[in-house]
What we know:
This protein has 223 residues and is α/β, with parallel strands linked by helices. It has two domains: 6-120, NAD(P)-binding Rossmann-like Domain (Rossmann fold), CATH 3.40.50; 125-222, Alpha-Beta Plaits (2-Layer Sandwich). 37% of the residues lie in helices and 25% in strands. The chain has helices at residues 14-25, 37-42, 58-63, 80-92, 105-113, 122-135, 165-168, 170-174, 210-222; strands at residues 6-10, 29-34, 49-52, 71-74, 97-101, 118-120, 139-144, 149-155, 177-182, 188-190, 203-209. A six-stranded parallel β-sheet has the order 3-2-1-4-5-6, with helices on both faces. Strands 7-8-11-9-10 form a five-stranded antiparallel β-sheet. The protein is elongated. The model has no long low-confidence stretch (mean pLDDT 87).
Amino acid sequence: MTEDKEFAVIGLGRFGSNLAETLHDMGYCVLGIDLSESKVQKNMDNCTHVVEADATEESTLRSLGISNFDVVVVSIGHNLESSALVTLTVKELGVPFVIAKASSEVHGKLLRRVGADRVVFPERDMGVRLANHLALDNIVDFLEVTPDVSIVEANSTPRMYGHTLRELDLRARYGINVVAIRHDTDDVVVSPSPDDPIIEGDILVILGSNEAVRKWQRSLAKK
């Protein structure tokens, strides 16, 4: 992603406004669009430009030059018809990459069918991450790659200290792969060697099925 990329965020609710503000703070050009005057006023400082407009109107999107944006995020709440219509319209107007927020699997399927390049489920994903933080003691962060596969950052445990990845044999025993090790000095070793030892303070970046990660976690709890 380059800083000359331009983004449009349609729908400035909690998710949309946080996304727009973060992109804007990172130095990107961000257009915010919402039908609510109060939301537009609230986001005046969070976007490069913000407009009060009805994004379901194709003429409105054309007048805003929506086709000139590299990425458009459709972040309309729970109105399935409006979010699907806006997603379809911006795609037909030539936006190269459209991300759409969904509130359910059915909503997500609809958005994909009308042209969304990527569908995100903020509420579901946040719930999954929180559940894993609560249930798995040493999990630092959790990212769902697919419904069945995740990347997790996990604190190393005292039983790992001084042992190499070869000795721990996590892939054979649990079906998980250590794809990186982050030391407490913030140095990151990507694709670590089987002979790299685990030291106190290390954070393991692990890729595996959700069931494999849970199996590994259960084994730690028994020790």
